[in-house]
Write a structure and sequence with these properties.
Largest sheet: 7 strands, mixed
Structural class: mainly beta
Helix content: under 10%
Strand content: over 45%
Low-confidence stretches: none
Mean pLDDT: 96
């Protein structure tokens, strides 16, 4: 059974940091692109970041650029999202998702949720003083 399990969410003060983990089981992530999405209450799901199958290409939404870093450790079958300088606007449930053969011909990952077919259950991030 293909599964993704997120962890690392929690309550953090504005300006703080969290590192989210997305661990795969039942399959190996090294042949998949992986993305992080988030959804805040009452808002639509939005892309946060993605990393290509090779790990050489990453992409960030404007709200994450310069603050968040996505990385992958294929030996751990895990993708990470390091989030720094968090603000209350980052409060949301964060989901990781994996997709096979969805990178662009130039090898770039895409943050299009309908291209990802394996999803985790989400981890809640709350940024509040």
């Amino acid at each position: 059974q293909l599964r993704l399990v997120e962890s690392g969410g929690g309550l953090v003060q504005p300006g703080g940091s969290l590192r989210l983990s997305c661990k795969a089981s039942g399959f190996t992530l090294d042949s998949y692109s992986v993305a992080w999405f988030r959804q805040a209450p009452g808002k639509e799901r939005e892309g946060v970041s993605c990393i290509s199958t090779t790990g050489r290409m990453t992409n960030y939404a404007d709200h994450a650029e310069g603050r968040f870093t996505i990385s992958r450790d294929n030996t751990e079958n895990t993708v990470y999202l390091q989030m720094n300088n968090l603000t209350p606007e980052d409060t949301a449930t964060y989901y990781c998702a994996a997709g096979s053969r969805i990178d662009t011909p130039l090898g770039m990952c895409v943050m299009l949720y309908w291209k990802y077919n394996t999803w985790g259950q989400g981890t809640r991030v709350t940024v509040s003083a």
